[in-house]
Amino acid sequence: MTGFRADDVVARLRAAGCVFAEDEARLLLAEASSPAELDVLVARRAAGEPLEHLVGWAEFCGLRVAVAPGVFVPRRRTEALVAAAVALGGPGAVVVDLCCGSGALGLAVATSLRDVELHAADVDPAAVACAAANIAAVGGRAYAGDLFEALPHELRGRVDLLLANVPYVPSEALALMPPEARLHEARVALDGGADGLDVARRVIAEVPAWLAHGGSLLFETGEAQAPAAVAAVTHAGLAARVVTDDDRGATVVVGTLA
Ligand SMILES: C[S@@+](CC[C@H](N)C(=O)[O-])C[C@H]1O[C@@H](n2cnc3c(N)ncnc32)[C@H](O)[C@@H]1O
């Protein structure tokens, strides 16, 4: 949008505590079609709405991923999980993105590996609709439901890569999250129960029946949660290892079915 002082937008965003005020101003200016619309967008951003919900997309693994209001905004640290998955997979892999949110992980893996068979699932209908639109371009299909219940049964024993960026924030820590997440992302997208690993444990318990031989489960945890997560993966009969990415601040647990 032209005819509006970019400096004013930057100043308002900076006063509201936006660290990347210049970048955000540029995106909001591009999004708004009138000064009035820009004013509303800047006010909403200053009040704490995620930039990605305002502009309708997030950048992830170099891709522009659509993110609908209320749907979890894919985090840059999760690019580490994608990199670990891509290193394990190859063309033609059967990939499942469980707890898919916007479908960003499956989309990124499918874009890197090419010709994969991609399935994505989430319990939140808004996320499923968002993911379905995002992954259609790579031939992916999205389903609604609780964890594995959402998936076609024909996938049992066939999955090469099971990506599962499950919620893993301990319930008590939710109140400490930044308002962008706490107020604008669904609790079901964040809350991992008492120690943060409740959903991960449910996935680990069921995943051996769904993986192909040599197939892998990949999920993100906090650094301090990794030992308990590894113990659960090992207990389920998978070979476990941890991938850390200091630059991205990411910890990824990988469990492989021998
Ligand atoms: C941390 S978000 C991750 C979203 C996406 N994978 C990403 O990284 O951008 C967790 C997602 O898990 C979904 N979820 C939570 N519990 C679930 C369950 N029991 N079955 C399926 N999806 C679930 C939430 O709706 C949310 O979209």
Explain what this protein looks like in three dimensions:
The chain contains ten helices and nine strands. It has a seven-stranded mixed β-sheet, sandwiched between helices. The protein has a two-stranded antiparallel sheet with strand order 1-2. The chain is an alpha/beta fold. α1 packs across α2 (21-31), α1 runs parallel beside α3 (35-46) and α5 packs parallel to α6. The protein starts with 5 loop residues before the first helix and ends with a strand. The model has no long low-confidence stretch (mean pLDDT 95). S-adenosylmethionine binds next to α6.
Topology:
Blueprint (H helix, E strand, L loop, with lengths): L5 H10 L5 H11 L3 H12 L4 H5 L1 E4 L2 E4 L12 H10 L5 E5 L5 H10 L3 E6 L2 H11 L5 E4 L14 E6 L14 H6 L13 H9 L4 E11 L4 H10 L3 E7 L4 E7 L2
Parallel strand pairs: 3-4, 3-6, 4-5, 6-7
Antiparallel strand pairs: 1-2, 7-9, 8-9
S-adenosylmethionine binds next to helix 6.
